């Protein structure tokens, strides 16, 4: 099978959310990422160089096209195409809020940058956080830049898009954390093994309504304490530092 | 003064390192960032909307051009231009290795992504790390994407480009840390208030020669311990989690 112009056009159309949503599919590229996802998601079709194909047999994908590097680069959204590109089916998402009472989960309130979301999914995977609840305006998990930045974490971390105020109001006696410049030094707090850590938008932080529902306000100390300088951390960085501290305490 | 085509061309040429280097200048955009940098770097010229100019008087910049949003967007490298764009002079860099014996410093071994470098500068600023030593192949600090991602940290954190093996060999009895999958759990280690933390390239980690010179190998524990899943953290994320732990211990 050869690579048709229509297929190239279709692949490139998946940069747009509306096209991904219409067909319930998403794009992933590169041997490491595609390799990770093949075991987790149903693959609609795959393009790969002969080199990649020879190293990956048998392959349980029906629709496979062998392509040259040059053909791959015409379909790829990456600056440097990497041997293989695959279109996967988006899994059906089920929201089970009870996971928040049993485990530590994240909530993202309008995170906008695809790279930040992907990086957060990757670090959630590292820190064993399996569920992330996202406000409806949070960037799409299936944005190709997000998928790439997860480095495979998308196969193991579940995202649920749902209005956060309603979600938080439905929780009873479960700690809901957020980071604030006027919060309590997190190193002085006893942090739980379950509950929700809310992280906010890159420019505006956590929205007003969600903020009013947070019952444990944390502060990531800068150094030296009370030094006047940096005013904030990138949202993925702040998420990592907070998750690391929850997990350090959990392992004590 | 009106905005000439030549000036637009000049500004856009600063996306390339060779052009920045030739004139020893760099570009910054947006009210927050430009505002932070005006007090720290010599400004060669500045373009701004009347709105920004009316809010920022007096201004100690000789070469100022009032521009419309439309004119600004023709010069800007950002997707969404933000009121002001300025070209600053690169400061002369002096490398004083003795800071490593007195304070905690970072070393970056071929970090390639401009956004990662900018994010690392921003978090170094937060954690009071004032000096970062970079291998010569590390991405340029004056890359516009790096400058933007520092969120002003570039005004307070000094970068020194120098071969890392020679640098590390010149240090005597100073701890040199790095993170490795086979390192010691960092939470079980007594971490110093001085020394060097080495972070590696996005794909390949720390180079072989530098690795052999690291005397304190650390591991950032994943969770639950020994779970098979995520294989790595983004370099900026790992840097943040390590720096946070050094500073937590230092504040105890």
UniProtKB/TrEMBL annotation, chains A, B:
Q: For the RNA 2-O ribose methyltransferase substrate binding domain, which residue ranges apply?
A: 27-94
Highest taxon listed in the record's lineage: Bacteria
Q: Is Nucleotide-binding given among the entry's keywords?
A: no
One cellular component GO annotation, for this chain's record? cytoplasm
Which keywords has UniProt assigned to this entry?
Methyltransferase, Transferase
- State whether keyword Transferase applies: yes
Pfam families referenced in this protein's UniProt entry, alphabetically: MRM3-like_sub_bind, SpoU_methylase
GO molecular function terms attached to this record: RNA binding; RNA methyltransferase activity
Return the similarity comment: Belongs to the class IV-like SAM-binding methyltransferase superfamily. RNA methyltransferase TrmH family.
Could you tell me what this protein is called?
RNA methyltransferase
State the organism named in the record: Bacteroides muris
What does the record give as the organism's lineage?
A: Bacteria, Pseudomonadati, Bacteroidota, Bacteroidia, Bacteroidales
